[in-house]
């Protein structure tokens, strides 16, 4: 459950394609009333988003996670603007009000990052029955500058991944926060972003650039850093079924923990899936069949692949097409 990314491939022989689609169980939180600056604002002390006119707004899908970036009049919450472009700790409390949240996603960067080990940004999650969790955002680990410059430019590529860039040196990153089990039986009432950085008088700190926030009640989430290669679908006369060979390759720097679910979205109703593990009850489209090529307790090491075969029955004669989704969990099914 630590990683979250959607891999979507059309069924074309020998070619790997990626795209994104919406999942069930996730709710973008409206930040329109909390955003305090437009992407194009320019303030004192070199406060501005470089090439701000190119930055995204509205409904977006970043790595399989739906977000809503405020469109007008302001687009993001700026810690520097909240501090009146000077020193001092500032904070933003975001009302949520969603029961059983398992993970939270932010689209957030810093304006002028300071590298760790110390953190200057913190997120605190508040549950209705007293659950609380504070997560530090450390420069060059799980948060970095929106601009590729001489400050913080690294992320861990696990809990934080890059999800947008304009090709001009500016980018947005997405963070994932896995909440403790105590939150499962509570309502996530609010999230507080605390910015202890500094800006002004020639000193710079990790002032926040928060563009969007989404909460998830799914215990299974899409897995990133895995590429899918699909072979040709061929008929096997010996079993009177159609077969397709699939390869999954871990392109990340960390091992992927099982279970790993291979979900076949939008498979035609007249096509049956052999060796099916079950149907999705959380990830949309609900009822999609899935198999489990990497069982619980297994690992897929970096730069290694696993191979498995899908079998299809097709008495209807429908074209066998689907959209694959890879998802992992801490034990729950998708």
* β-sheet strand percentage: 35-45%
| CATH class category name of the largest domain | Mainly Beta
Total count of domains: 2
Helical content (DSSP H or I, runs of 4+): under 10%
Rounded radius of gyration (Å): 22 Å
Given the helix and strand composition, which structural class is it? mainly beta
Poorly predicted ranges (pLDDT <50, ≥5 residues)? 1-22
- Average of the residue pLDDT scores: 87
Ends apart, CA distance between termini:
11 Å
Number of strands: 28
Overall geometry: elongated
Strand and helix order: EEEEEEHEEEEEEEEEEEEEEEEEEEEEE
Query: What is the fold-level CATH name, i.e. the topology of the largest domain?
Result: Jelly Rolls
Largest sheet: 6 strands, antiparallel
CATH architecture of the largest domain: Sandwich
Number of helices: 1
Outline the structure in words.
- It is built from one helix and 28 strands.
- With 334 residues, it is mainly β.
- Strands 1, 6, 8, 11, 12 and 16 form a six-stranded antiparallel beta sheet that branches. It has a five-stranded antiparallel beta sheet with strand order 17-28-22-25-24, with no helix packed on it. Strands 18, 19, 20, 23 and 27 form a five-stranded antiparallel beta sheet that branches.
- β4 (58-62) and β5 form a beta hairpin.
